[in-house]
TrEMBL record:
Keywords: DNA-binding, Transcription, Transcription regulation. Transmembrane segments: none annotated. This is BlaI/MecI/CopY family transcriptional regulator. Belongs to the BlaI transcriptional regulatory family. The keyword Membrane does not apply. It comes from the Bacteria. SUPFAM superfamilies: Winged helix' DNA-binding domain.
Length: 134
């Protein structure tokens, strides 16, 4: 499907960013009153996505551990286990797990952080260490 701009030339529809649909699906699930089916999610996303696309996104989120599913008749009901930040963390962990030299990847990541983010990371690590001592 293409749109026309003011001059009448065809424009390609905006391409979604990587993970954008997953974020939208998670946001819809977090607004749900409880476990919901894929049709409910499709309606909340405006209905312009194919049902099979919604199922694919839910299945990918399930494989990543970001949602759980429970059999409900012939389909599933879905519940979020992660928010968008948790999903981003899962993606980061997946990238890190795919690398042979974790130390080099982490060192490169940390040294590239702006000073505010570096301090935030230090604070979070200190907090995690304190909680681990309890």
């Amino acid at each position: 499907m293409t749109d026309r701009n003011q001059g009448g030339a065809a424009q390609q529809p905006r391409r979604r960013g990587q993970g954008e649909l997953e974020g939208q699906v998670l946001a819809a699930l977090r607004e749900a009153p409880g476990p919901v089916n894929a049709g409910w999610v499709q309606e909340r996303l405006g209905g312009d996505l194919a049902y099979t696309t919604v199922i694919t996104i839910l299945t990918r989120l399930h494989a990543k551990g970001a949602v759980t599913r429970e059999r409900a008749g012939r389909s599933f009901e879905w519940t979020p286990t992660a928010d968008e930040a948790g999903l981003a963390a899962l993606r980061m962990r997946k990238v890190l797990d795919a690398e042979a030299n974790r130390e080099a990847v982490l060192a490169s990541f940390v040294t590239a952080l702006p000073p505010g983010d570096e301090q935030l990371l230090r604070d979070l690590l200190a907090q995690a260490a304190d909680e681990g001592e309890d």
